[in-house]
């Protein structure tokens, strides 16, 4: 009997999704083309097929299994396929739960701390980021705070400025338990360049890189956003993962792709979204500020005319005009743009720090005392002409005639 003929063990089945954040029952139906056991797809599993299937949406019941295996595959690209495949199975669940209990004990040395309320750490995100989710249960809020606290302690984000992390954690908890969400966040944080920025400088570089790409691909959209100040307020994208803009089920669709392809997905969908919105509106000058611009984007994405699959096609299609089609920058080009913007932001930060340091150590000119025997008196010239004539009479002829 070969491996294909032997009966499948329970530990080899894929783990089902569960909503820890809101406690809403998950639809356990498996759509055609997907499997709840190896292989994941009815046809041969490969990278191109995986991308295509994910872009059409992962069944809710399989999101936990596919999300974590996608993250493991991206963070451990040098490992064999079976390494990431193992994280989809029930056999790995016990190991992840045990690891979660260990880090909980290490983080909260006093067990009584777990009985009370846990304060959610501040990663630089909006304190109201949970308002975009369905009704969050008390258990879900505590689970979110626990995962974020343990992640901050284990990964060592100091100072903890990673504004995407709380929103990502909440979305992960919509499909998995605390142990799985922590493991996903830990892997993403340790490979942050693939998924999200972990400092103010990196966050600034990401937003500036988006502006650079948008200005190159769609100059008119760039100008419209610049005039209303929307380019200075990219929080709905790079802090809240489109939650204030798109329907919730569409955000989960983007999360499907994001876990597999990384942070580049945010740039792709952000450029495509504002481009489609700019084409839909008649007059871009009616937006007075960034708030009105993003409110207009939300009205567009919640209208009947908006089709999410059109957004996906635009995000992975051509940009520019029919006469001059341009592809979205490849991953290494995007990484180079971010690196250049990061260097600029670092230089600006250093210059600002030097200026602040100089201003704090410089003594005011009014308080500077004269040096040595110089008296603190301001010399003045004799203004009347007759005084100057009398003084000149005492000068030698050579000086008097010069």
UniProtKB/TrEMBL annotation:
Superkingdom as given in the UniProt entry: Eukaryota
Could you cite one Gene Ontology molecular function of this protein? GTPase activator activity
What the entry lists under InterPro entries is as follows: Rab-GAP-TBC_dom (IPR000195), Rab_GAP_TBC_domain (IPR050302)
Domain Rab-GAP TBC: start-end pairs: 140-281
Pfam families per record = RabGAP-TBC
- Which Gene3D superfamilies does the record cross-reference, listed alphabetically? Ypt/Rab-GAP domain of gyp1p, domain 3
The name this protein carries in UniProt is: Rab-GAP TBC domain-containing protein
Species of the source: Grammatophora oceanica
């Amino acid at each position: 009997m070969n491996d294909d003929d032997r009966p499948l063990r329970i530990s080899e089945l894929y783990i089902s999704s569960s909503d820890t954040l809101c406690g809403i029952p998950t639809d356990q139906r498996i759509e055609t083309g997907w499997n709840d056991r190896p292989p994941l797809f009815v046809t041969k599993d490969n990278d191109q097929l995986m991308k295509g299937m994910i872009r059409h949406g992962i069944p809710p019941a399989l999101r936990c299994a596919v999300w974590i295996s996608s993250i493991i595959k991206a963070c451990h690209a040098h490992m064999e396929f079976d390494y990431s495949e193992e994280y989809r199975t029930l056999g790995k669940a016990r190991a992840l739960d045990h690891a979660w209990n260990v880090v909980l004990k290490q983080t909260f040395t006093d067990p009584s701390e777990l009985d009370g309320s846990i304060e959610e750490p501040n990663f630089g995100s909006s304190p109201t980021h949970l308002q975009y989710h369905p009704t969050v249960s008390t258990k879900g809020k505590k689970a979110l705070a626990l995962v974020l606290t343990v992640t901050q302690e284990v990964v060592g984000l100091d100072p903890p400025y990673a504004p995407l992390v709380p929103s990502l954690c909440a979305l992960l908890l919509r499909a998995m338990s605390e142990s799985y969400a922590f493991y996903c966040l830990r892997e993403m944080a340790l490979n942050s360049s693939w998924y999200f920025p972990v400092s103010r400088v990196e966050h600034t570089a990401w937003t500036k890189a988006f502006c650079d790409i948008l200005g190159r691909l769609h100059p008119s959209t760039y100008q419209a956003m610049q005039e209303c100040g929307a380019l200075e307020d990219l929080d709905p994208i790079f802090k809240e993962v489109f939650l204030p803009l798109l329907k919730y089920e569409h955000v989960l669709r983007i999360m499907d792709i994001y876990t597999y392809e990384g942070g580049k997905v945010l740039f792709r969908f952000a450029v495509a979204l504002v481009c489609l919105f700019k084409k839909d509106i008649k007059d871009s000058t009616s937006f007075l500020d960034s708030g009105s611009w993003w409110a207009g984007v939300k009205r567009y994405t919640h209208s009947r005319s908006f089709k999410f699959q059109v957004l996906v096609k635009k995000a992975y299609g051509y940009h520019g005009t029919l006469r001059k089609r341009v592809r979205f920058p490849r991953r290494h080009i995007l990484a180079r743009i971010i690196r250049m913007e990061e260097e600029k932001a670092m230089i600006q930060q250093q210059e600002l720090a030097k200026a602040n340091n100089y201003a704090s150590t410089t003594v005011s000119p009014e308080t500077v005392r004269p040096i040595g025997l110089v008296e603190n008196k301001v010399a003045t010239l004799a203004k009347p002409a007759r005084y100057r004539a009398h003084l000149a009479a005492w000068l030698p002829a050579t000086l008097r005639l010069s």
